[in-house]
Amino acid sequence: MRDELGSLPSLRQRLRQLGETRLAPASTAVQTPPPSQVGAAVATALERLAARLEAEVVAVRGGPVHLVARHSYPLEHRHGDHALLESLRLRPETLSLLSRQSPVSELTAEDALFFDVETTGLAGGTGTLVFLVGIGRFRDGLLEVVQLFLPGPSDELALLAAVRAELESRPAYLVTYNGRCFDAPLVQTRFLLHHQRLPLETWPHVDLLYPARSLYRARLPDCCLSTVESLVLQVRRSQEDVPGELIPGIYFDYLRTGSVEPLARVFYHNLHDILSLAVLSGVVSAAIEGAPGGHPLDCLGAGRMLEAAGRASEAGEAYRRAAAGVRGYHREEALWRLGLLHKRYGRHAEAEQVWRGLVSGGAELQALPHIELAKHLEHRRRDCREAADVVRLALALPAARHPALRAELQHRLSRLERKLAASAAAEARAGGDYAAGT
């Protein structure tokens, strides 16, 4: 390498000729406060934060510390348009559906742990610290929320020990929002970096992001928790809140300057995330279970989820509620899915009725109702003539301008016409044989 690039001094000379003034680390150390001064500044800031939040600073054998803030809410407490009590009405079979086949036997809504973290980076990774952990649970007729705060990187072991104690206090399942991919893996990473293990991947886990997408994507611009809060739960946060993207910077400012006022807003943000998780779990469950007063578009998403879970009867009712409450494309989709559900469970007469209603109503849906009705008429009713008429109606739809769909319809029509021609020829031969015989 030295033969190819020249000796190290010659490289330095060339860099100087190019105008480089800094070729090596500075000869004098950067002036930083002594560790004792840094520790004293953090301790003072932590005391001020604890006083502001009415929280407690907990020391571990005189060494690492963490801060604990506790809150309690009665079940009648309303967060937006909904009371916390609604979350306790979750049925076991709906819990199983929401957990996406995680083991939830013997667990109820009262065993939920509402879990949310604030971190020094939104992308995760081993360099990302978890500096605030919020955990909520129902206990003794209250929703109790504990917030565990990391005063500084050197105190991480104390924070992790407190998190473990809170999570493992009794059998439970996690309730998060995108926590399956972010919160839980990140907390596990912090444990692993300290040669410890908290196997959150084995816990039953209800990640509300996934049912929220199924239920609300038809009527919301996106499914961020803040959007769901505003448009579904009708939650209006005060000016004390802080946008999530600013939170890492606020924590770093606290470490550098001891500023606690912005950090108190992060605690507010985390606390309201926990409240939203608690309420949203009840709202999502009510939508899936068909509670009165739900948005009809949510019924369409609920039907898809129930059908995937094998709860066919409830799925059919959800599709009917959606079709009765919406118009246009979403009504057609609800009826289309209802027809498929009938077909899947062998209720062919009911499926035909749905297909006919969609076809006569001029439904588009990429000609799918027309194709299903044509298949039913051809293979079950043995009525190739009407089946061909239905395919011709499909070819007149704007969707049939798409080359692939048009080719499929033309192929189906050609086959039906060949069958009709063969049937006509057979009838003609039969008629000729009859005439010859007489």
Overview of the structural elements:
- It contains 17 helices and nine strands.
- It has 438 residues and is an alpha+beta fold.
- The protein has two domains: 254 residues, Nucleotidyltransferase, domain 5 (2-Layer Sandwich); 111 residues, Alpha Horseshoe (Serine Threonine Protein Phosphatase 5, Tetratricopeptide repeat).
- Strands 1-2-7-6-5-8-9 form a seven-stranded mixed β-sheet, with helices on both faces.
- Helix 12 packs antiparallel against helix 13.
- The longest helix has 35 residues.
- The N terminus is likely disordered.
Low-confidence stretches: 1-8, 20-38
Distance between the termini: 107 Å
What percentage of residues falls in helices of 4 or more residues? 40-55%
- CATH architecture identity of the largest domain: 2-Layer Sandwich
Q: List the helices and strands in order.
A: HHHEEEEHEEEHEHEHHHHHHHHHHH
State which percent range the strand residues make up: 5-15%
CATH topology call of the largest domain: Nucleotidyltransferase, domain 5
Could you give the count of β-strands?
A: 9
Number of helices: 17
Number of domains: 2
How confident overall, as mean pLDDT?
Answer: 87
- Major sheet: size, sense and barrel closure? 7 strands, mixed
What value does the Rg take, in angstroms? 32 Å
CATH C-level category of the largest domain: Alpha Beta
Biggest sheet, spatial arrangement of strands: 1-2-7-6-5-8-9
Based on Cα principal axes, name the global outline.
Answer: elongated
